[in-house]
Amino acid sequence: MPLSNANKPVLHEQQRKDEEKLPKKRKLTDTVSSVNKRIKSGTEESTAMTESQKRANFSALPSPGSNGVHRHSSPLSNNKPGTTKKLVIKNLKEKPKVPENYQQETWGKLQEAVDAIHTSHAIKSSLEELYQAVGNMCSYKMSSTLYEQLKQTCENHVKSNIEQFLADNIGYEEFLKKIDTCWQSHCRQMIMIRSIFLFLDRTYVLQNSAILSIWDMGLDLFRTHIVGHHIVQNRTVDGLLQLIDRERTGEAVDRSRLKSLLRMLSDLQIYQEAFEKKFLEATDSLYRSEGQRLMEERDVPEYLLHVEMRLEEENERLLHYLDQSTKKLLVNLVEKQLLEQHISQILLKGLDQLLSENRTTDLCRMYTLFSRVKNGQKELCASFATYIKGTGRIIVLNVNNDPDKDKDMVQAILEFKDKIDNIISTCFGKNEQFVNAMRESFENFINARQNKPAEYIAKYVDSKLRAGNKEATEEELERLLDKIMVLFRFIHGKDVFEAFYKKDLAKRLLVGKSASVDAEKSMLSKLKQECGSGFTVKLEGMFKDMELSKDIMLAFKQSVQNEKTSKNIELTVNILTMGYWPTYTPMEVHLPGEMVKLQEVFKKFYLGKHSGRKLQWQPTLGHCVLKADFSGGMKELQVSLFQTLCLLLFNEGDVFSFEEIKQATAIEDSELRRTLQSLACGKARLLLKAPKGKDVENEDKFKFNDDFKHKLYRIKINQIQMKETQEENVSTTERVFQDRQYQVDAAIVRIMKTRKTLTHNLLISELYNQLKFPVKPADLKKRIESLIDRDYMERDKDNPNSYNYVA
Question: What is the spatial distance between Cα 117 and Cα 127, in angstroms, rounded to a whole number?
């Protein structure tokens, strides 16, 4: 096979320099232009030359077939001095003859030079003379014989070197040193020889494609007679593998020798056949056993660090001495044996720990390494999703039913979400595959506990938007609301969120406990953008009612300025549209006469402007500011309406029993117990309870605490309206379920009205597509039966599994 000049060693630079020193091929004839130039110069020597002398000069050149140059004077040349002489070039009459024994003598001189190069002795003849001799032989049609003689001489020399490599008592390092020295010498010799025979290489060899160039001939001889010998080749490859194995165990080796010998194999075009296959087999065996051993001995971070180190080492070998054609096979092999074969074990053994401990550096390394192997990212992503679901379920399900954990549920989910987002951003390069897995996993575990996460998210928003929350600035609160909206997107029971959010918003607005109107409207805008205007229409109506109420109260205060009403009491009324606000249970309580009188005045004023409307008072959310005179001085008390009614009783007496207070105020039993508990058992004890205790019993008696002291003038007593009772929670949840039944009924009727006839399975499928909250098939079946009973639809007489719409 012809060998490519592209594989020549780095000694070519020396070859080029040697070639530059050689004389260029002598031109056999002067050009016409150069002759004309000489004639124009008008020198006496040129004009005095005779025709025979010129012919003799031209014919003296040794090249066969050269042209003779004759100059004939023009008939007019003597008449016109200075006229240019005309040259006529003709062939010589006889070709120059080759001297006898010219070929043998010339080759003898050349062979002597080649032998001197092989034996590292001085060359007797000059390089110019040798180069000229090669040129002359080629000109006399001796190229073929010259090439064969040169090849035979080089082959004899190469053959003479084989014996030194066949000795048994030589170590592999000494052997590699010898073969490297031999190779380097051979390359230098062939470069020198080629520089002498360059004319042969550029004429005869170039014109015959079946013949190897002088350089390739040298490579072929070295490959055939030295490296091609099975003993030499095996010992060379085994020695190289031993050196590489020693380096892999941490020993320092001569990388320059490795590079030289591997380049030799590559130049001889036996790198893949002789070395690469054995090298990859040895590498595969090494890393297979190493991977199995280290997976048992080391933890995951240490193992991944070792894999990263091994890959860097192999890349260094590729950089320093291995052929680049080996790169893909070698790297793939290391990745397969150290990573691909152990992906499941690595993930099972260490991923959860790395994620739990937030070890971002190790996670970055794992992601980078797993990205190199087939299905690595896919399996890492699946395990990542499993971890999120498992950890999230522990937060949400609250197996031990710990009330404190439920209160902290949303905060824990937000912190967990921040942690996962940071890992995806820092360690996983914001990979869309991991982002989607995170979203699906959060949606999965948040809805593992039906309705509760939605309820607690609404309550968490309430705690952040309530007055007195000084934990965050407006910017921080805005960012927090954005994070909450992310969780809101995951929940299925958005109607549950709406019900609890609406109830808490109503309390914040009516009791005046909203921290910021801007924050409230910002949250409303986010909900509208996420769920549409239909979701927020009632919430927006609540804000409109509050704004209209302010205008009504301005008009009311102006109208009563001239009337003789109580000057000690200021009345503020919020007019609420029943359809917008949560449903409150009507409660009749005994109000003081002055309050009743003011209510009637306002009722008369309002109905005078809005005839046909009906007002229904809701005392449960009323609040007052009282002035109280204690022995320590005057205080202002911010209390609820129920607290106000209880406290005003002590203007008429010092001690009242529970039953007496209940009879005097007509407050419902459970509400009264909560109210008295807030006044007598809280931090600010305006009443003294006997006997002492946290719970209010029927036999308890209450006394006004005249010795009450507080550093503040205006005191906020525990707002019992802001605390959700168990009854309120149950009532809100029941209303959500009731609304869902109406929505299911409406959806069934809407579908049946459109389709007229449907099978049970198709109807259930359509309902799941339309309903925006989770519902069980059994519940849907109950609603279908209810609509059949109410004659909205009927079963098909021929097919009981099919329904017909009843117009």
Answer: 12
The whole-angstrom separation of Cα 453 and Cα 444 is 12
Q: What is the residue range of 719's domain?
A: 622-724
The predicted-structure confidence for 59-96, as pLDDT tens digits, reads as follows 333 434 334 334 443 444 444 555 677 888 877 666 66
State pTM to two decimals.
0.73
Q: CA 740, 742, 743: angle at the middle one, nearest 5?
A: 65
Q: Do 160 and 271 sit in the same domain of this protein? A: no
Q: Are residues 313 and 351 in the same domain?
A: no
- Residue type at 442 in one-letter notation: F
| Per-residue pLDDT, 719 | 65
Quote the number of domains for the chain. 6
- What's the CA angle centered on 728, arms 727 and 734, to 5 degrees? 90
Do both 20 and 44 map to the same domain? no
Residues 6 or more apart from 762 whose CB is under 8 A from it?
A: none
Q: What are phi and psi of 723, to 5 degrees?
A: -90, 125
| Contact call for residues 54 and 70 (beta carbons, < 8 A) | yes
CA–CA dist 83, 697 (Å, integer): 149
> What own/partner pairs with CB < 8 Å and gap ≥ 24 does 193-197 have?
193/114, 193/117, 193/150, 193/154, 193/218, 194/15, 194/218, 195/15, 195/18, 195/19, 195/22, 195/127, 196/22, 196/110, 196/113, 196/114, 196/127, 196/130, 196/131, 196/134, 197/110, 197/134, 197/146, 197/150
Among 647, 635, 570, 576, smallest CA distance to 601 is for 570
How far is Cα 112 from Cα 741, in angstroms, rounded to an integer?
112
Q: Do residue 57 and residue 114 come from a single domain?
A: no
Residue 545 within a domain = no
Domain-located, residue 174: yes
Q: Which residue has the higher pLDDT, 356 or 58?
A: 356
Peptide bond into 586 cis (omega under 30): no
Question: 3-class SS at 716?
Answer: strand
CA 80 to the chain's CA centroid: 94
Statement to judge: residues 120 and 38 lie in one domain: no
